[in-house]
Here is the input.
Amino acid sequence: MPRVVSVYLPSWPTDRHRRMLGQQAPPADQPLVMIAREGSRRLVAAANEAAIATGLRVGMPASKAQALVTDLIIEDLCPEEDRKELDRLALWFLRNYAPVVAVDPPDGIVIDTTGADHLHGNETLMLTGMVNRLFAMGFAARAAIADSWGAAHALARYRASPALVIPEGEAAKVVLGLPIAALRLDSGTVAALRTLGFDTVAELAATPRAPLALRYGPQIGRRLDQALGRAAEPIDPIRTADTIEARRAFAEPISAGETIARYVGILVVRLCSVLEEHGVGVRRLDLILHRVDNTLQVIRAGTAKPVRDADRLTKLLCDRIDKIDPGFGIEVMTLSAVHCEPLDAIQTISSLIEEPEAEVGGLIDVIANRGHRVYRVAALESDVPERSFAAMPALADDDELGWPAEWPRPSRLLLHPEPIQCMALLPDHPPASFTWRGSRHAVKRADGPERVFGEWWKRDKELGAVRDYFVVENDAGERFWIFRQGDGEHADSGSGSWFLQGIFG
Here is the structure.
C-alpha cells in the first residue's frame, strides 16, 4: 500500500521573508503580515503566529489590520519568490528523504515515502525529523502520513500537531470527521456546500453524488475518492533542469523480474556514459517505474562516494527488484542521478610488489542500501570520554587527531555513564567494591586516579567540575573503567557519585 507524506507550512510567506532578512529579521513575537492586491483593494494574504494572536486574519483589509495593531510590520507578498523557494525546499526533501517529491502549492510539499521510512528509523521518526529540521531552518511545519495524497493533505492541515502517523488502511475513517474544507475544493464550492448545510466530509460522502455532480461538476466526487483512498492520484516528481536521466518507454508493459533487471542494466550503462561526459559520479540514484494504472514504484540507491561503475550501480538496484510490485505492468522506466559529485578518471597501476588496497566501497553500499547504518568512529579533541568521538561516514578521510596513548582506554564505552554504588576511602583511594546492575564486584586490583577536568571554556557549569577515573579488576579478572564525580574534598567539584564508563574487552 502506498504511503504519502504531506508537509504543511502554515506561515510559509512570513517565515520565508524572515529567513531572507537573516540577522535583520524582526523578532518572531512581533506581528508580521504580507499584503496582496485584489483589484484596488489591499488584503492580508499571510500572517505569522504573533499577528494571528492579535486577532488578525487572512483576507482582512490591510488598513483595518494596521489600525488594530500599532506595531504591525507590513510587507508585500511575493508569490513568485515563494514558489521558487518552495521548489528549492522540495529539492532538499528529494535529496534527503524520498525519490518522489512534488510541490503542493501554495504552502505544502507532498512526498511518496513508500519503502523509504526504514532508512530513517520508522515513519514516526521520519516525520518528526522532517518537522524538527524545518523548525531549525526557521519554518513552522506540520506533517501527516497516510495512504493517499488527499488524506495526508487534509490531516496535515486539520489534525497534525505537529506530526501525525495514520496506520495503513485507517485513513478513511479519520478523514470522515474533518471539515469539508479539507478536501481541496475551491473556496466558492466550500461556501456553497456550507450554505446547503454540509459541515463534515462524512456528511458529504453520505450524499448521493449525482445531484452534486449535476450542480458543481465532478470535482467533489473526485476529491472525495482521492481523500478516502478510492482513486489514485499520481505525484509528478520534481526535477532540476540539469538532472541527468535515462528513460525507456515500452510498447508493451513489462512485469517479469528478469526483464526489469535487464532493462535496469541497459539504463545504467546509458546513464554512466552521460555521467562520464560530465565528469561526475552519482551519490544518489532513483529508479522510477511508471505502472499502467498511473501509479509509481520507486527504488532508491545511495553510494558512500561518487560512482559511475555500471556493474556496481546495477547490482545496487537489482538487489531490491523483489520489492517492486509491477501490478498490471510497467510502461516507462526512468533512472535519475539525483545527487552527483565530481569524479575524475582513475588509472589503475599494476604492481608486483605492493598489494592493492581492498575496495570496500561496494560492500558498504550494499549494506547501507539494505537499511543498515554504516559508519566509522573518529576521534574528537575532548578530555571528556563521551565527547571524544563521533560517528563519521564510512569512507570519510582519516582523521589526524588519533587516540590518547598516555592512559589505557576500554574497548567498549557505554552509551551513557551508568551509576554504581561504591565503598571507597576519600579522597584518592579506589573503591574496595562496587555494585552495578544489581551485581556486586569485589575489587582485587586498581590503577588511578586519572583526573579529568570539565570543559569550562565551553560550559559555565563545568568551571570547577572534576572526574577521577580508575581502572579496576574484580576477582573474575573482568576490568572496568569507573569514575567519581568530584575530587572528594570540595563540594563544588562534583557530587561524589560513582559511575561506570566502560568495559575492557
Summary: The longest strand covers residues 439-453.
